[in-house]
Amino acid sequence: xxxxxxxxxxxxxxxxxxxxxxxxxxxxxxxxxxxxxxxxxxxxxxxxxxxxxxxxxxxxxxxxxxxxxxxxxxxxxxxxxxxxxxxxxxxxxxxxxxxxxxxxxxxxxxxxxxxxxxxxxxxxxxxxxxxxxxxxxxxxxxxxxxxxxxxxxxxx
Length: 156
Known about the structure:
mainly beta; 8 strands
């Protein structure tokens, strides 16, 4: 009985895929329709393709090299060139082109604008943990700097 169920299930699976002897071509499945289990990856239209035409899983970061200074009250410090990736709303991310850590184990720092002169800052660790640094205010002395309770991030 158990073998019969396995054979029946396999036959139904093949029939659903067009492999059950049917001459009818399988119709494409719209993965965005409700009820389909797998959704297409988001933002793949802009992602680079490899030599086989597949989306590159981890494309190299793009942006421009700027001078960065990152400090906090816990001894972390970075003062050098880093990759500046800007968003249209003024938010930005800082990283190194080779994806090595900027400070300690932080590989990427994101400054997300929440209101004029205000931002929320997060850091991405080498372990993939998204750590919240806290709120920051744009410096009136140097508008390239954002100051939080226990950190400062400058990019110019």
